[in-house]
């Protein structure tokens, strides 16, 4: 079932939580709403569910206007961050709740409810816990029960509010994978809220990045990461290295550092944004860039070696971070305090007061002999 | 490494069995002493007073016809007053927790008034209000209902003095109740009434029952507020507390103590029963 969000506005007193939000969620997709706290993502999710009402705008399910429809009638599955399991009921009673409260005409016989509940519990691999009380379960188990309960009414739309936010890293990863499988198996349309970029990028078909009540960008995770459409998205999606400078002719300069731009842009005050994988390090400066850096720390944990660097003879608000492979690390053996030079390969140019980046690529010919690279 | 580290620590903190939090012995000692002086000593005194009587005498005093009639009056009026308080108190707590309205804080403060007000003052005020020509009494009179000098008056006085018990025990539990539980239930298709019956009520039920129990026990022992409005007619509107007072005025201390011990026993047993039941219920919620 597709979801259309049309011009939703929501105020809490004088605070504008959502500003004219429009979003199309195609049938069967898993869409992440990503943003910092206070960006309005949970409010939007609650408006889709009908737990909150919008001041303006419409919500449509499969082309049908449900804006005025009560939560009860919207038939969505909703999963809360803190599970919201009924403490005084057993796991089985929790899962059966939706079926139990059906009007007697529509309610299946007790034996069938029991069978459905068992099936749902098997689906979340917790059939053996049917008679336990929620207080006896771990966080991950509780959230799986909450999911089983949300799915008990066979909803075509599943909404999840920071579903893994309260869980530890390992359980989170398991549940993420498991939600993805579940989604593929049952073909419902899912929307989930998260403030974790990694989670959003890993799990979603599409991610809507939100900031201060507005949607900044809606795209597939790949496009979002490679081509952020605004400075906010850039900053929010992972570590970024910034070089701010003044342009004269085709050279961007700040202190001792400079970068030669492949094409001359209009403004003079410019910023270059570079992801850590878009920068290389070498021990001598390149022909098109002179960005001296000192190594502040070396972190060997993970798939690549991460170096934290501070500018030498120029400045940046945040330290730089660049990743090199373990093989490169072994041949180079960089130490804390060593000096090196950053060589941008792809960079995103943003005028200081502007919003949208412009991607720059240096052709192989403009760059140095690859042999000089580490 | 291990040895050098432990050498740095002061010796006494590594003593086995030593508590980390200080002051246990002192604070427990003071608490026990206070409880003994304020609670247990008077109770022992009460029993000591009755100890002079033989069993037969004791039994005769507490089963005296007029006294038994007073038990009945006290019990059923206290029961009714507690039921009324359960309903009104729950509603009041609900309104105070769930809604925002002007004057909410004043209303919240007013709930405690029966605790703060001397019960005799409450008694005189109620008696005046419900007298046949009083502000309220005249309208009740038109309906043919007599409040003053009847058991109905006793119920009114009992409800007044013990209302805060229900409100104040239910209120914090209702405040702690996460709105998500109700939202989850509604999103699963439950009606408002079902949500109340199956989600909210089970959560506040232990607190409500405690409130009702406290309210009932308080009503059993209430004296000041009731005697002014009850009329104190033997066999009709005479409460047990008054019987104690009457025996005292006859300088029959032993008999007064004997009747008092019955009230005390009833209250203690009821509170104990509620506590036991509640502990069992809460154990389930907390998974122990």
UniProtKB/TrEMBL annotation, chain A:
Residues 3-237 form the ABC transporter domain. SUPFAM superfamilies: P-loop containing nucleoside triphosphate hydrolases (SSF52540). PANTHER family: SPERMIDINE/PUTRESCINE IMPORT ATP-BINDING PROTEIN POTA (PTHR42781), SPERMIDINE_PUTRESCINE IMPORT ATP-BINDING PROTEIN POTA (PTHR42781:SF4). InterPro entries: AAA+_ATPase, ABC_SmlMolc_Importer, ABC_transporter-like_ATP-bd, ABC_transporter-like_CS, P-loop_NTPase, Sulph_transpt1, TOBE-like. It comes from the Bacteria. One of its GO terms (molecular function) is ABC-type sulfate transporter activity. GO terms for cellular component: ATP-binding cassette (ABC) transporter complex. Transmembrane segments: none annotated. PROSITE patterns: ABC_TRANSPORTER_1, ABC_TRANSPORTER_2. Keywords: ATP-binding, Cell membrane, Membrane, Nucleotide-binding, Sulfate transport, Translocase, Transport. This is Sulfate transport system ATP-binding protein.
Automatic annotation (TrEMBL), chain B:
Pfam families: BPD_transp_1 (PF00528). The chain crosses the membrane at residues 21-48, 75-97, 109-131, 253-277. Keywords: Membrane, Sulfate transport, Transmembrane, Transmembrane helix, Transport. One of its GO terms (cellular component) is plasma membrane. It is found in: Cell membrane. The keyword Membrane applies. Part of the ABC transporter complex (TC 3.A.1.6.1) involved in sulfate/thiosulfate import. Part of the ABC transporter complex CysAWTP (TC 3.A.1.6.1) involved in sulfate/thiosulfate import. Probably responsible for the translocation of the substrate across the membrane. The complex is composed of two ATP-binding proteins (CysA), two transmembrane proteins (CysT and CysW) and a solute-binding protein (CysP). Belongs to the binding-protein-dependent transport system permease family. CysTW subfamily. This is Sulfate transport system permease protein CysT.
């Amino acid at each position: 079932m597709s979801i259309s969000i049309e011009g939703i506005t929501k105020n809490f007193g004088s605070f504008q939580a959502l500003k004219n939000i429009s979003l199309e969620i195609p049938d069967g997709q898993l869409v992440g709403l990503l943003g910092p706290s206070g960006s309005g993502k949970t409010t939007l999710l609650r408006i889709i569910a009908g737990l909150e009402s919008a001041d303006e705008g419409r919500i449509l399910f499969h082309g049908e206007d449900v804006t005025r429809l009560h939560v009860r009638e919207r038939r969505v599955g909703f999963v809360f961050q803190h599970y919201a399991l009924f403490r005084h009921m057993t796991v089985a009673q929790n899962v059966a709740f939706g079926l139990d409260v059906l009007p007697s005409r529509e309610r299946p016989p007790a034996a069938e409810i029991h069978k459905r509940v068992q099936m749902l519990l098997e689906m979340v691999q917790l059939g053996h816990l049917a008679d336990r009380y929620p207080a006896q379960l771990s966080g991950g188990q509780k959230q799986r029960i909450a999911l089983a309960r949300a799915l008990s009414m066979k909803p075509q739309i599943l909404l999840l509010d920071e579903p893994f936010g309260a869980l530890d890293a390992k359980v989170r990863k398991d549940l993420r994978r498991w939600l993805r499988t579940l989604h593929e198996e049952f073909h419902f349309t899912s929307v989930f809220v998260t403030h974790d970029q990694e989670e959003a990028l890993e799990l979603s078909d599409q991610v809507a990045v939100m900031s201060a009540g507005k949607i900044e960008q809606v795209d597939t995770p790949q496009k979002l990461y490679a081509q952020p459409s605004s400075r906010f998205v850039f900053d929010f999606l992972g570590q970024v290295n910034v070089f701010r400078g003044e342009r004269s002719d085709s050279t961007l300069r700040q202190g001792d550092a400079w970068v030669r731009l492949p094409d001359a842009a209009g403004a003079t005050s410019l910023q270059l944004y570079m992801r850590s994988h878009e920068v290389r390090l070498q021990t001598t400066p390149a022909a098109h860039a002179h960005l001296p850096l000192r190594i502040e720390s070396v972190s060997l944990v993970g798939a690549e070696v991460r170096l934290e660097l501070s500018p030498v003879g120029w400045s940046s608000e945040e330290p730089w971070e660049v990743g090199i492979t373990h093989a490169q690390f072994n041949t180079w053996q960089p130490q804390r305090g060593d000096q090196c030079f950053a060589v941008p390969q792809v960079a995103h140019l943003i005028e200081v007061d502007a919003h949208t980046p412009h991607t720059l690529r240096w052709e192989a010919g403009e760059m140095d002999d690859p042999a000089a690279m580490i | 490494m291990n040895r050098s580290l432990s050498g740095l620590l002061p010796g006494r903190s590594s003593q086995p069995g030593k508590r980390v939090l200080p002051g246990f012995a002192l604070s427990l000692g003071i608490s026990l002493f206070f409880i003994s002086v304020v609670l247990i000593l008077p109770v022992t005194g009460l029993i000591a007073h009755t100890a002079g009587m033989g069993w037969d005498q004791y039994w005769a005093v507490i089963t005296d016809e007029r006294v038994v009639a007073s038990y009945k009056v006290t019990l059923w009026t206290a029961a009714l007053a507690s039921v009324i308080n359960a309903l009104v108190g729950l509603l009041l707590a609900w309104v105070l927790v769930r809604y925002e309205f002007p004057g909410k804080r004043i209303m919240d403060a007013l709930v405690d008034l029966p605790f703060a007000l001397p019960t005799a003052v409450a008694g005189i005020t109620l008696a005046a209000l419900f007298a046949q020509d009083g502000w309220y009494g005249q309208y009740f009179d038109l309906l043919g209902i007599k409040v003053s000098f009847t058991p109905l008056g006793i119920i009114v006085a009992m409800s007044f003095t013990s209302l805060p018990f229900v409100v104040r025990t239910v209120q914090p539990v209702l405040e702690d109740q996460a709105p998500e539980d109700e939202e989850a239930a509604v999103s699963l298709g439950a009606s408002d009434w079902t949500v109340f019956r199956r989600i909210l009520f089970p959560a506040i039920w232990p607190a409500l029952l405690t409130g009702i129990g406290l309210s009932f026990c308080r009503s059993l022992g209430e004296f000041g507020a009731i005697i002014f409005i009850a009329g104190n007619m033997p066999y009709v509107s005479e409460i047990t507390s008054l019987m104690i007072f009457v025996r005292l005025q006859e300088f029959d201390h032993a008999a007064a103590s004997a009747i008092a011990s019955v009230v005390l026993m009833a209250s203690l047993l009821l509170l104990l029963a509620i506590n036991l039941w509640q502990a069992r219920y809460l154990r389930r919620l907390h998974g122990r």
